Amino acid sequence: MTPAEIEAYVDASAAALGLKLRSDHRPGVLRYFALAAEFAAAVEAVPLSERDEPALRFAPVPPRESEQ
Amino acid sequence: MSASGLLRQDASAMADAVRGNAVSAVALVQASLDRIEATDRRVNAFTAVLRERALRRAAQVDASLASAHGPRTRELPLLGVPFAVKNLFDIAGLTTLAGSKIEREHQPPRDDAALVRRLESAGAVLVGALNMDEYAYGFTTENSHVGPCHNPHDLARIAGGSSGGSGAAVAAGQVPLTLGSDTNGSIRVPSSLCGVFGLKPTFGRLPRTGSFPFVSSLDHLGPFARSARDLALAYDAMQGPEGRGPHDPGCAQRAVEPVGAALRLGAQGLRIGVLGGYFRQHAQPEALTAVDAVAQALGASRTVDLPLVEAGRAAAFLITNSEGAALHLPDLRRRAQDFEPLSRDRFLAGALLPAAWVARAQRVRRLYAEQVARVFERFDILLAAATPSAATPIGAEFFEINGHRLPVRPNMGLLTQPISCIGLPVCAVPVWGAHPDLPIGVQVIAAPWREDLVLRVASALESAGVVHAPVAPLA
Questions:
Q1: Which of B24, B161, B383, B403 is most buried by a 10 A CB count?
Q2: Range B179-186 average pLDDT
Q3: pLDDT at residue B395 above 50?
Q4: What is residue B89's DSSP assignment?
Q5: How far apart are the first and last CA of chain A?
Q6: Into how many domains does chain A fold?
Q7: What confidence score (pLDDT) does residue B422 get?
């Protein structure tokens, strides 16, 4: 992402989430978002197939009676 | 030996002394409280000292020893041992701060965290709560709300984080045993910088019930101590499935698999490799010297690269940043100015990460774990430095690693983050002599659920005099 794209995305997504960025917080937020974007590029670069599963599994929660 | 002399020994020696009536639990706990009183203005490891509760509990231990229950009490593994916990563990009647200002407004919990209860059931005595990075998001414990935790071996330097108080309290000889949490390195980094032993068990091994979460899909809990046998003692006391009542959904609820008796097996016969590539490129000379010293002592000469390690670290960063921020979104919306200034902007950015990045990170994490599992078909143990450098000065913004100038605060954990990302058990062991004045840790890493192997190797290294955890003089 270019710096301009990051600024546009950060401002738009913050507004969508109802997160008001103060002027003294915004430069740090842009810097850390840019860092996250670098890490996202590293993750994007790994070839995955549609069958590569995520690391986390959901564990269904049985009602208490069936635990006994 | 006097109680204050015993306090310089490890927890196993203290429990033996109480068991043999050489010292009372009250005298031992009082010695711990005195040491905290004498040193903590300089170290700032504690955020709360539970004098009354600790002395009452110690008196109960002594009374039980003198009663008809004496023989059974005498068998408790941590008899009369004072310990303390990072202030994200619930302590009945004390607000759980998780290093923050915001949580000060909340009601204190009614119950202790599951692991606090388990250690006290094993005879240990809780004496206090410990300093940490706010909401565990940091590697330095430069907590702006209560002040930085100082490294007992050089008070001008950081203790590491986020469980900085947990590492410092053990190194300062205030208590022989502490608990911390590790999401990306928060047990192993302070262990390394404070020169103590730390165990990050397999993800899902120990229940997190009653602790303040940071990133549920990555959070681990574990002990710090001054010997491998103490880690084993505490770890064995904390294992096992949860009974009735609240459960940690991230806990595998495995049966107890005790490691204490396995320590004497040593490292003989284990296939040990040294992590190369990423792990050597991101380390200063003292870190490489420490790993090489440990490898040489173990006769390990084979170097191995972890496949996908950089992508794994990236995945851990994204999952942490997004999940951690989402947890605090209501407060980030309402009162961002009340967050720790050193991590606030990182939290705010994390709240904005696209879902696609995080979903992909969880899939890359899985693929990375599968590829590393194949490495463990050829090796039982892998070695790597725990931190890229020894402790940096408090307030330092940057350090240089292999010619690159990097910010200290997000990067002190860059060697631990790829390992916890896939939940492997690690014992951080303290090496002296690799740096002129300071300790630095080495990660002893095994396949999932093989805590026995990492503790066997740690114990063997300790017996050989390669690693040790002296109490800082703090004269």
A1: B161
A2: 98
A3: yes
A4: B
A5: 54
A6: 1
A7: 98
Residues in chain A with CB shorter than 8 Å from the CB of B365 are: 54-55
Residue A17 lies in a domain: yes
pLDDT over threshold 80, residue B173? yes
For residue A59, is it within any domain? no
Residue with the two structure tokens 């109490």: B471
CATH 3.30.2350.10 fits domain B3-463: no
DSSP 8-state symbol, B393: B
Answer whether A10 sits within 8 Å of B349, measured CB to CB.
yes
- Name which of A22, A39, A46 is nearest B318 (Cβ-Cβ): A39
Nearest C-alpha in A relative to B314:
A39
Confidence of residue A68 (pLDDT cuts 50, 70, 90): very low
Q: Render pLDDT for B55-104 as a digit per residue (tens, 0 to 9).
A: 999 999 999 999 999 999 999 999 999 999 999 999 999 999 999 999 99
Average pLDDT, chain B: 97
* Structural domain boundaries in chain B: 3-463
Is A19 a domain residue?
Answer: yes
B-chain residue closest to A43, CA distance: B311
SS3 content of chain B, % helix, strand, coil (to 5): 40, 15, 40
Query: In A, which residues are within 8 Å of B364 by CB distance?
Result: 43, 46, 48
Two tokens at B278? Answer: 């990423």
Taking CB atoms and an 8 Å limit, are B317 and A55 in contact across chains?
A: no
| Residue A18, domain extent | 3-44
Q: Is residue A14 part of a domain?
A: yes
Say if the Cβ atoms of B329 and A32 lie within 8 Å: no
Q: Name the one residue in this structure whose structure tokens are 């904390």.
A: B238
Integer angstrom CA distances of residue B247 from A65, B70, B133, B253 = 16, 32, 26, 9
Residue type, B334: R
Substitution target from B364, B371, B424 for chain A, most A beta carbons within 10 A: B364
The tens digit of pLDDT for each residue in B241-293 reads: 998 888 899 999 999 999 999 999 999 999 999 999 999 999 999 999 999 99
